[in-house]
Amino acid sequence: MTDKKFARTALLLFLTLAAATAGVNYWIDPLWHYGHANAFNTVQKVTNEREQKIAMLHYGRHDYDTLLIGSSRSTYIHPTAFEGWDVFNFSVANLSIREVHSFMIYSQSQLPGLERYLIGVDFFKSSEKEAGAPRALTNYENKIDQPFYRTKNLLSLDTLEISIQNFKKSVTDTVDEDRLYNRKGEAFANRLTKEEVEESTSAKIARFEKEFYGSNYTYYKDYPMILQKIKDAAGDDELSVYTTPISTGLFVSLVESGLLDEYEHWIRDLVKVNGGVWNFMYPNSITNDNMNYIDGHHFYPEIGKLIAKRIQNTDTTEVPEDFGVYVTADNLEEHLQDVRELAEQAVRESGNK
Amino acid sequence: MIFNSFEFIFLFLPIVWIVFFLVGKVAPPFAKAWLLLASLFFYAYWNPAYLPLIIGSMIVNYIIGVFLGKNKWVPTRKVILTLGILFNVSLLGYFKYRDFFAENINSVLGTHISLIQVILPLAISFYTFQQIAYLVDSYRLETNEYNFLNYGLFVSFFPQLIAGPIVHHGDMMPQFSDRKTYRINHENLAKGLVIFSIGLFKKVAIADTFAGFANSGYGSVETLTMISGWFTSLSYTLQLYFDFSGYSDMAIGLALFFNIRLPINFNSPYKALDIQDFWRRWHITLSGFLTKYIYIPLGGSRKGIPQTYVNIFIIFLISGFWHGAGWTFVIWGILHGLASVIARIWKRSGGKLPKIWAWGITFLFVHLAFVIFRAPDMSVAMSVYKAMFGLEGFQLTGIVSIFNESIMYLALYLLIGLAIALFAKNSVQIMETQKRTPLMMLFVVMLLYYSSMQLQRVSEFLYFNF
User: Fold this and answer.
1) Which of B184, B217, B233 represents a domain boundary (last residue)?
2) Based on the domain organization, do B297 and B441 belong to the same domain?
3) Is residue B336 assigned to a domain?
4) Average pLDDT, integer, range B394-406
């Protein structure tokens, strides 16, 4: 082989392979940089929701009027569950309450028509341990602002690996993981059997007791200040705060580890700062059924839909009557008394099992 | 800009290469100017603030060099040379060593000299040495009168600018003057592709893998035990070799794309059978510079045995300090100086070891010395040593959590890394001797493809479900 042929063929082959890699990655778009949908990218794996969603927001549509921010639990609330509202669901895994403000500020820079904010809050994220450390979206903002950010990600074997997985799942229409998305940014979870749900719920409760509840939990004293910052960021726009529903089993574990007073403290602060809060986190007909959850902690999208409907329309008959209470200063004490009684009953029933 | 980046491989390099040969076909001086501008852009891309520094340094040294080379105003030449060297040493001293000295003076004398905490200008250690050599040779009347474009390229030619090899003006500037340099040479292109792809793979696939293990180990020294201590230190020894030699290979390959030959910088150093042999194989161009411009002017081996040992010790002390402004580097240099002196004494006394012992002792010494080279301070180095020598126990538990990898795979990676370093042909040998077969071409394509598709890593977020 002559040097000329060697050099030319090698370069040509290399460029062909690189172009093919970039082509496949563009076609499947596993990092949500381009937004096109086709039959081969309908199922999308999560790589890093912060990065994927910030890219989606940055490179995608800018005409949403509603922003939904929450933890992994809230990822299962589909934007299409809201009628008449054009929602961008910016919920991500392991969201700290300290991050919410930076999510709002960044979204405001991208979505000029924002009118409404829906903020999902989790009790276990109100502890000193979970809310104490400063967190913000800044690193991801910087990351997507890097020169050639999208092009670089097209030329990547890591991206290709995810593209291939997405391709396989899309072709077979397989949802076999805790969280997979479609091209509209809606999250789905695999359907588990009753035995699998019981097993994953027990494991999750054990983990919460070990990592978040009991002596691991101290209510973060600056939590109301963070809530106020979020409220201020919303300005004159509509702001609805809701608590995420956990399974009754996990709620019982919270009560048994002595955190009911802290829970009440948390609800009081939510009401005090925001004037009112949608509370879904107490024993009710939805939370009593473990099959509504993947693991007693993350609910399925149909429950997300019920949350959406309740928030949009207080008197809707499409949602079980006992699911969701709008708590204000007027009904706060009465509601907390109800929760206390429901909790006692749930603990008793749990002890009888 | 670094070689293993998207910007470099897919944008900078193709654009610079294509324009260079298109312009070179009709007007070589313009191609030369283009290459100089491209090199300065390459430098400035990292931090434009330091561009005036390198340009200023180039202009001052060029003027002094030309003056010295003309051999006029003879009585002042030595003073001018001294001033020129002082200028270079002062720049290096200010940016690289000022805070080190200030900290030490503060701690010894209780003074409060403020620290400048300036970011070290990229490549200053390299271009300072190259320009000092140019001044000294101009004083010795060993340089011809060069034009500024050639000189500027000798200092800033992007393949060797950041991390060497340290090049000699006598080797470089004639190549920039040669008209053949501006015509595509397919042999150089093919050779360049071979060695560049090997270098890129060494850096991206091998060195960066070991870097992860070494960083994890050094990041948790308090939990290291014997096995994890050796995993940590061996990972770093391999990381350093594959990283630095990979970068040198890439530099050689890139220069060949432009028909410029750079000197070999690494010649399978871990195959060395004694410490002198090691330094003939490791960072060869640095050893060459120190020998020519410090060891020989000090008297070399011409002033008797004791003075020879002192001279050897001095160049290793300087070598250590050149590598970094910290006591760990100084101690590393001292250790290599002592080892080199001991090796000479041993050889003079007629001592000889079986090959395997000679290799084992040399490798072990180099390896143990690199523990200090890597450690941020001596207490960390001592913690790693304690772990390596069993003073922190022998437990295997915890290794997976430190390195995020199973013991079996870690051991396998290290064995493969060592096997490549010890038994594989050197990349320059491969480039020079391997025939350009279709198989070789596929090998090059796969290395290039795999490595260049690793430049943007996408990792899964660890806290997936909270």
Assistant:
1) B184
2) yes
3) yes
4) 84
* Residue B180 and residue B192 in one domain: no
How do residues A245-280 score in pLDDT, each as one tens digit? Answer: 999 999 999 999 999 999 999 999 999 999 999 999
Q: Is B151 found in the same domain as B43?
A: yes
Three-state secondary structure string covering A224-290: HHHHHHHHHHHCCCEEEEEECCCCHHHHHHHHHCCCHHHHHHHHHHHHHHHCEEEECCCCCCCCCCH
| Nearest residue in B to A21, CA atom | B453
One domain, residues B142 and B266 = no
Q: Which residue has the tokens 């020998």?
A: B291
CB-CB neighbors (< 8 A) of B435 in chain A: 1
Q: A159 CB near a chain B CB, below 8 Å?
A: yes
Domain that holds residue B172: 6-184
Q: Is the model's pLDDT at B125 over the cut of 90?
A: no
- For residue A252, what are the contacts with CB-CB under 8 A and spacing of at least 6? A343, A346, A347, A350
Instruction: Tell me which chain B residue has its CA closest to the CA of residue A212.
Output: B466
Q: Tell me which residue in A50, A148, A156 faces B458 most closely, judged by beta carbons.
A: A156
Q: Is residue B466 part of a domain?
A: no
Q: Would you state the structure tokens that stand for residue A58, as one six-digit string?
A: 């940055």
Interface test with B, best of A2, A3, A124 (most B CBs within 10 A): A3
B198 touches chain A (CB under 8 A): no
What's the burial of B361, exposed, middle or buried (CB within 10 Å: 0-12/13-18/19+)? middle
Contact A118, A85 (CB under 8 A): no
Angle between helices B438-452 and A3-28 (to 10 degrees): 40
Active-site annotation holds for B323: yes
Say what the pLDDT of residue B113 is. Answer: 87
Same domain, yes or no: B167 and B99: yes
Residue B456 contacts A, CB cutoff 8 Å: yes
pLDDT for res B233: 96
B175 touches chain A (CB under 8 A): no
The answer to whether residue B117 sits within a structural domain is yes
Res. B463 pLDDT band, cuts 50 70 90:
very low
- The reply to whether A10 touches chain B by the CB within 8 Å rule is yes
The C-alpha of A117 sits at a distance from chain B's nearest C-alpha, in angstroms, of: 21
Nearest CA in chain A to B458: A158
pLDDT per residue over A168-221, tens digit each?
Answer: 999 999 888 989 999 999 999 999 999 999 999 999 999 999 988 988 999 999
The domain boundary residue, chosen from B184, B202, B225: B184
Look at the pTM and tell me if it is higher than 0.95. no
In chain B, residues with a C-beta closer than 8 Å to the C-beta of A6 are: 186, 190, 193, 436, 440-441
B460 inside domain:
no
* A 77-96: CB under 8 A from B: 93-94
Q: Are residues B90 and B41 in the same domain?
A: yes
pLDDT at B164: 78
pLDDT digits (tens, 9 = 90+) for A279-314: 999 999 999 999 999 999 999 999 999 999 999 988
Indicate whether B408 and B359 sit together in one domain: yes
pLDDT at residue B461 in the model: 45
What's the mean pLDDT in B299-308? 88
Q: Are B98 and B135 in contact (CB under 8 A)?
A: no
Going across the sheet that includes A44-45, the strands are: A44-45, A180-181, A187-188
Residues 6+ apart with CB under 8 A from B454: A156, A157, A158, B204, B205, B208
Q: How many domains does chain B have?
A: 2
What ipTM goes with this model? 0.86
Name, in order, each residue with C-beta under 8 angstroms of A287's C-beta and a sequence gap of 6 or more.
A245, A246, A247, A248, A251, A280, A281
Q: Kindly state whether residues B146 and B34 are assigned to the same domain.
A: yes
Q: Identify which of B7, B445, B461 has the shortest CB distance to residue A10.
A: B445
| Segments making up each domain of chain A, as ranges | 25-169+177-352
Q: What is the pLDDT of residues B328-340, one digit of tens each?
A: 999 999 999 999 9
Question: What's the pLDDT score for residue B462?
Answer: 40
